[in-house]
Every structure is written in C-alpha cells, then in structure tokens.
Amino acid sequence: MKKAELPSICLIISSNDVPIKAERALKSGIKWIQLREKDLPRRDILYSALKLKELTDKYNSILTINDYLDIAIASEAQGIHLGQDDLPIDVAKKLFFGIIGISTHNLQEALKAEGKSADYIGFGPIFKTKTKKNALEPRGLSMLSLIQKKIKIPIVAIGGINFNNLEKIIKCGCKHIAVSSGILLGDIEKNIEKFMNILNKPYKK
Fold first, then answer.
1. Which domain holds residue 193?
2. What is the pTM of this model?
3. At what angle do helices 20-27 and 188-199 cross, to 10 degrees?
C-alpha cells in the first residue's frame, strides 16, 4: 500500500479496545487503526500494539502508533503519528520508513509539517470533543477549508466528528477523518455502516 493511499476513516482506539472492539471494527470494513494510549506503561502499550498488528495484518489494514516511535518500530506498524511536542519529523524519518503523520492545530503548523515532508497531517479539533483530555478549542469548518486550500498532502480532520456533522467536513473538501467515540460507542457495526454511507455519498462542490 502506497503512503498516499490512506483510507477515509482512521479509527483511534486505546488498549481497552484491543482485541474485541478492534476486530469488530476491522470486520466491518475499517482499514486504518491508530493506537493512542497515554496512561499505560510502555510494556503494556507494546503488548497492545503487537496484538493489534496481528489483527490489522489479518484484515489487510494499516496500523499507526501514536507518539511512541520505539513501539511503532518494535510492533512493525506501518505508521507513526506524532504530536507537536514529540520527536521532530526529520529525526523520525531517519529511524522510521513508514507513514508519518503530524498533529496540527493551525496553518503555520500545517505548512511546517508539509515542508518537513510529513505524509499527512491531522488537523483539529474541528468540533468540541470529550475523547481527548485537555482538548484545544475547536478550530471550526472555516479553518479546515483554509487548510484544505493551502495544504497539498492528505488532511485528516479530527475532533467531535459524528453523523450529524460529517457532511459539513466533506463539503470542506476533506476526504479523511479520524474518529473514536463516534464509532466505538454503541453498535460498532451500524456506526461504521452509517459513516461509510455518508462518506461514499456523491456531493456537489
């Protein structure tokens, strides 16, 4: 799979979602999972990553590890997702040869990530979110539209995305989203079906 060929949905999960919820999502068509774990010891995160890699391989899907380059390398994940305070992109590229994504929150950060040859950027939060602790204020749709016009690499919108606002994201020109509770809370299979139906619906620009 080429770096540019990113699936439209990146499902963000924690170790608590491995393996049961992760496999249900993969069975239902999710092709990209990001393991985001902030609180557990490194050894436990690695264990989750290794289990998750078995599952993503089984379903021919991408695994991205949030923050921890050593765990991404040890688990043979296809991608690493870095925050603004994590390892610099140019250093990460010397050690990791897979997909490298960067979290960004404004145009300056997005341009810098693109200039450093990130494979994609995560941008947000677009809407209010309860999933992430100490989340920033929402960046909104107008800022997402501006980022879409200025940035050439893939942009993954994140933050409070659900069935009610997904069409607004798409109409900004954004082709990729990152979702956690919007899929994992409730009926996972039905939630994924709803998301995919909206994403696959034809839209007028």
1. 9-199
2. 0.93
3. 40
